[in-house]
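Title: Comparing notes on inverse folding

I've been comparing how different people in this forum approach sequence design from structure. To keep things fair, I'm posting one structure and asking everyone to reply with a full sequence. Here's the target:
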């Protein structure tokens, strides 16, 4: 029954209902969710506080800024302190002689800068930014080929499959634009989603690095489900969302805990 959704499930459904729409009334949302209007009002107030949507008279609409991927230079400055904490926590998961994959994204780039302290790594990446940081690190470095995506400074698309399908990695450190339980990981580009899905099939362990602004927010295209994630490293997370992820077998690491 829809009315028995967990709060995090309701949030995901509210965002789905608002996607591609000019807005929904509280009455429409309550009917779709099979809950009271008072429950919807509380959900909307909490979600607006987290900048997931904007309340308007009698209803809500999506916050446009949460649907657009910023330029890479802008990403590096957003929530920098939180991303650095996440990167440090993730770096403790790397062991000497690991074969690791580095996805695109500013948090993964911060993580990449911490890798030289490890020994004898094989590093596979589609990120030109990460490759630039690591080109003189002494580790074995492998770039997947593919189409250059300027916004993310990554190599993506079907051409990346020729390298990815030939390798196995022990740990894949991934980034994302959005994460919900219903949609899983989502991003803004179809070719980028393709490459993310390919590498996760070749990884023994998938470790997602995502700050709190990515949680509960869907983006354009699915790049993997929650079943693909083994570990989430974040800076803060709602208790209900954490419990829901853990019920799917995902280990949640909050940097600084």
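Reply #1:
Here's my take.
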């Amino acid at each position: 029954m829809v009315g028995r959704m967990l709060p995090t499930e309701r949030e995901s459904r509210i965002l789905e209902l608002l996607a591609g729409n000019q807005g929904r009334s509280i009455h429409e949302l309550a009917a779709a969710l099979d809950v009271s209007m008072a429950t919807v009002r509380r959900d909307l107030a909490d979600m607006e506080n987290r900048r997931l949507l904007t309340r308007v008279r009698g209803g809500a609409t999506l916050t446009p800024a949460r649907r657009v991927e910023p330029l890479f230079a802008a990403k590096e400055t957003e929530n920098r302190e939180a991303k650095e904490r996440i990167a440090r926590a993730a770096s403790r998961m790397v062991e000497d002689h690991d074969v690791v994959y580095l996805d695109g994204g500013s948090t993964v780039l911060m993580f990449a800068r911490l890798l030289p302290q490890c020994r004898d790594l094989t590093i596979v990446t589609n990120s030109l930014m990460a490759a630039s940081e690591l080109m003189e690190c002494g580790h074995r470095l492998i770039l997947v080929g593919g189409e250059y995506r300027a916004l993310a400074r990554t190599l993506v698309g079907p051409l990346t499959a020729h390298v990815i399908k030939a390798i196995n990695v022990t740990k894949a450190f991934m980034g994302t634009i959005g994460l919900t339980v219903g949609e899983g990981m989502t991003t803004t580009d179809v070719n980028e989603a393709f490459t993310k899905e390919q590498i996760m099939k070749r990884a023994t362990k998938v470790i997602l690095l995502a700050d709190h602004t990515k949680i509960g927010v869907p983006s354009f295209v699915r790049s993997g489900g929650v079943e693909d994630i083994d570990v989430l490293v974040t800076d803060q997370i709602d208790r209900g969302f954490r419990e829901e992820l853990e019920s799917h077998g995902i280990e949640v690491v909050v940097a600084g805990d």
